[in-house]
Structures
1.
Amino acid sequence: MKTISSLLFLLGLLLSVIWGVGSGVDVLRLAALESQLEQEDYSTVPYQAFSTQSALILAQKELELARKSPSRDNTIHTCQALSHLADAYSRDQTQGLVLAEWARLKASLGEFSCGLQGASVRDVCPEGLSVCDIESIVQVALSTDPLGLDILFEAGWALLLVGEREEGFSHWRKLLGFIRPTPVQREIILSSLTSLEDLALVAPKRFPNLISLLEWYEKSSQTRIAGTFDNLVADAIEDFQSSSEFSEPHTVHWLWRSYSFVQSDFVRQSLDRAAAKYFNLSGHTSRVDYFSHRATLTLLPSLVGVTYRESTPTQSSLTQWGSLSSLSLDGYDRSVGAYLGSESPAVLLELRALPASDSLDIESLTLYRSADNYHWETITPITLKRQTIEDDVQLLSFYLDPLRTNYLKVTYQDGVHGDLFRGPIADMVRVYGKPGGGL
């Protein structure tokens, strides 16, 4: 295979001498060059480019070698890639992405001078530019295509490397507002965020994109950020409701996922109203009623606990308060409940879990109240409703006469044991009351 590639390259050289370097010859030579690089046969690869495309291919080769090389050789290959990118831009000055990549590579070298590697390697400003600082070059690159997504990414990265964090993050914010970045871009962006202030600088205004970014950040940093960006979420959902995209089926997933980032009850109510509006557009009357009602209520402060193996539900205690462990409520006589840190009467208790293939036997559920977390008495709810919100959550909602109590719990007994109602203990129970604490 290497022999065939070499023959193709030599044939291209011969034809260029006879006919001149025409477009057909360039195609042949590029094919030979790409084949050599695919086979990692660098012995006969020319150093000098013969076209814009060949310069870009040679730059790509050097960057691949840089990634595989020790520190010193890495720098040499980076310098050679810089030289090829400068050559490519000089041949075609509409190539804004090439210029942005040159700026980012140059910035990555810091104070290092490629001139130390020899006269053939240059990191001087590409021909055709009157200024050569990174900030100016980035502006020239962006002027060729202000909304070019790859240019925005490279421009932001280059500016961060020279310490212009706010301006660099502003370009990434535009990028994140348009698309979901590639896995490589996402990794680089997330690794560049050193604080929640940085995260705020790149947070896009578009609602689904904002929620995606917050999810990625929590996962990569292993940090809970609920409540940190309530105002951003509130503004984003307000704007999103007026967009044509709001009525699309995927909206419900973004809505539900956004609740985990919100602590302000005012913002939670805004999300409830948005959910009611969405379900009205999609024709789910029962969900409209539910979220419209919940939007009028106040989420009461509470701490969630669990009891395993409920042998005597009227005399037992909730434990493991606030645990992030997962619980199957329908597994072997269990209870989940909440300590209420509020004087406000409860009017709605909500159990939530991940969706399942089948429904929990709600006839096996019993609601209890307690003053001391040991002596319990049963309560009969006004009604119990069950809903599954697409593929995101199961909701079991106990509507109550206004009730003041220290503890509430729901016990599953005597039903079929399984794994139909599962979720993190700390997120399984929500209790709501009327605004102002009135009865």
Note: The first strand starts at residue 298 and ends at 299.
2.
Amino acid sequence: MIIVAAAALFIRNKMLCRAVYHGARLEFDGISYTETDYKEIEPYRETWNIVCKTDDGVWTVYEIDKFPGREYVVARTAWEARVLKRESNIKAVSK
């Protein structure tokens, strides 16, 4: 039973998309997120839905309950959490 559970976790981790941290910016699935102050969305509650993990395996990215569209996500390690906000890639058109 333990072997089956370990194999399932290994396969699940391989199937998750991978993110890359560049300083204070996180990128995955062609979307960039920048670190922001958690007070911007306080109080917030993380879900258990894992969005992705970083390439180095240190950070796990989770959805935030109030933002199922992933406008905000939280990157977490065992000892630290960082709230990230999706960057707007759409430039305003001036008239």
Note: The first helix runs from residue 2 to 15.
